[in-house]
Amino acid sequence: MAKELEIEFKNMLTKEEYSELLGEQKLAPISQTNHYFDTADFRLRDQKAALRLRTIGSRYECTLKTPAASGNYETTDSLDEGQASAMLGLRQFDAPEVSAELERLGVSPSDLTHIGSLTTHRAEIEYKGGLLVLDHSEYLGVEDFELEYEVTDEAAGKRIFISLLEEKRIPMRPADKKIARFMKAASKR
């Protein structure tokens, strides 16, 4: 289990911008699927929190994101295939650190429901003291492209990210979190 502060900058990309950046870095994306959970009355969303089960090949992790003064806190439990399958089937929630944080938010794991899934094809590279991430996401018939920059120093990270966008002549296009984009698409169905 880990609890970390996440500071990231995001920008939506066109398919062409994404392809160009991917080609420049000579990166091969790895596919991962996020399965999102909330209560039927969206108590996590209302507290600006998000819960996901992420599958990357044969690895599984359950992460709860909660707001912080700058960025988000991420509480994560690594799971095995059986634990992940039980969570997806809403049979059992065996993620102790995440469970404790959920209870702190007033949400019982037994109240959770699976609200949907989003698949991301992700490429990552170290860049000027942070992690540069290129994401191509698919969900509910929607396809989008995003650039993220994950850092530990917010001020320096912002300068570097803006400089990169300017250097690549990519307009600033604010990007909601993936779960927010997913929920927006789901509400249109």
Residue-averaged pLDDT: 94
| Rounded radius of gyration (Å) | 17 Å
In percent, how helical is the residue content? 25-40%
Strand order of the largest sheet: 1-5-4-3-2-6-7-8
Tally of separate helices: 6
Straight-line distance between termini: 36 Å
- What structural class results from the helix and strand content? alpha+beta
Strand content: 35-45%
Protein name: Adenylate cyclase
Pfam family, one: CYTH
Organism: Planococcus maitriensis
InterPro entries: CYTH-like_dom_sf (IPR033469), CYTH_domain (IPR023577), Uncharacterised_YjbK (IPR009195)
Secondary-structure map:
Elements: E1 2-13, H1 15-25, E2 30-39, H2 43-46, E3 50-56, E4 59-67, E5 72-79, H3 81-88, H4 96-104, E6 112-127, E7 130-139, E8 142-151, H5 154-167, H6 178-187
Antiparallel strand pairs: 1-5, 1-8, 2-3, 2-6, 3-4, 4-5, 6-7, 7-8
Protein name: Adenylate cyclase
Organism: Planococcus maitriensis
Pfam family, one: CYTH
Task: Write up what this structure looks like.
- The chain is α+β, with helices and mostly antiparallel strands and 189 residues long.
- It has a single domain, classed as Hypothetical Protein Pfu-838710-001.
- Helix content is 30%, strand content 43%.
- It contains six helices and eight strands.
- Strand 6 and strand 7 form a beta hairpin.
- The longest helix has 14 residues.
- The protein is globular.
In short:
It comes from Planococcus maitriensis. The protein has 189 residues and is α+β, with helices and mostly antiparallel strands.
